[in-house]
Amino acid sequence: MPDTTTLAQIDAPLFDRLMEKVSEFGSTGDGGVDRPALTDAHKAARDWLCAEFRQRGYSVLTDSVGNLFGRLDLAGDDAPLVMVGSHLDSQPKGGRFDGAYGVIAGLVAIESWRAHCARNRITPRCNYVVADWMNEEGARFQPSLLGSSVFTGALDREFALSRKDRDGVSVEAELIRTGYMGGDDAPRPDCYIEVHIEGDSHMERSGAKIAPFVRHWGAIKLRIEVEGKQNHTGPTPMEDRQDALLGAAYIIAKVRELADQSKDTLYTSVARVDVTPNSPNVVPGKAVLFAELRAPEPATLSAAEAALRAALPELARRAFVTAEVVGTDIRPAGKFDARLVALAEQAADRFALPRMRLDTIAGHDAVALNAVLPSLVLAVPSVNGVIHRNDEYTSPEDLKAGAGVVLDMIRRIDQAGGCLDTAAEAK
Hints:
Layout: H1 12-22, E1 32-33, H2 40-55, E2 59-62, E3 68-72, E4 81-86, E5 94-95, H3 100-119, E6 127-132, H4 146-152, H5 157-161, H6 171-178, E7 191-197, H7 202-206, E8 211-216, E9 218-227, E10 231-232, H8 244-260, E11 267-276, E12 282-283, E13 286-295, H9 298-318, E14 322-331, E15 334-335, H10 338-350, E16 358-360, H11 365-369, E17 375-380, H12 396-415, H13 420-425
Parallel strand pairs: 4-6, 4-7, 7-17, 8-16
Antiparallel strand pairs: 1-5, 2-3, 3-6, 8-15, 8-17, 9-13, 9-14, 10-12, 11-13
Binding site for Zn(2+) 2: 98, 137, 388
Keywords: Hydrolase, Metal-binding, Zinc
GO molecular function: hydrolase activity, acting on carbon-nitrogen (but not peptide) bonds, in linear amidines; metal ion binding
């Protein structure tokens, strides 16, 4: 009889090899990587991933916005489809685990399950797909979660293709240049699982090794244009200056003030400012701010946005400039699928891994997918809570533990024939 009681184990050597290799693409030499979406380094990483898929018998699919999928059919054509994955694009001078870990862990979990089934004469009941979403980070092209949001229908494809980077190069042009303007129909999974490093120190402080995110915070991202008048920084009298960067500075301080007034319930930032002409001897004539508001409650977000918009005219007047919101991206708050949360916790218990529940303040592709199908992000601890920089680090043991939990989740889902209710209730 097939052995369905022996726990499947993650293929640790395979995980180590793939994780080490993917970290080479865009390596900064100091532990980090620099491969924003559709750069040459990102293309090289994706080309390598495609080769890994093909070598293992996966069908390689690329949809019309550059999302990349490796599909493995182990069951019949009508069998449930389980998707795992994340993204290979990074922040400029970012860390090597953010995103890439989820792709590699997902691939290794599927490969480990396939090998376990072969060893124990188990007939799989589900098919599998690994996703590498296009432009999750939103570093080069805005907004973030671009590929996964087109996948779910939250964003229009033509809108996504028209996004441009600082140099005026479009997503469409770079998809064509890198060879990832595909035409395949995207797989339509029955559920989606993503594993990620935490990016905070809650887990490290508590000793937890696994943490399913039960909620995702909402976000409002505003692009604010401040218009002044370009002039000389020397002879132009101070009282005559219309300094767009000074107006931007007042707005930036206001954005921080909003968070200080709503401690722990509102996170804010202005992490990018584009200044024109950006010369040391010229009073800036224009500044474009990328402001973010994040909160778990819609009312908190709405109130913060209203307060910021209301403050703009007076803040601009102080610098003798004008300020206008010219773009708004909204990501609603929500809850991840409770059955997948239960499966992650049961897997953690099975491997005797201490666990806790968390919210995710950051965006993930699973946040986009959660609007249309059962989805989950689960986290492993990051040392000192570091993320989005070169010294981002998670121990090999913790990385493999997270991959092992994903493996056990897909084992349970497979044995339940894809039924999440049955999988979550099984002992």
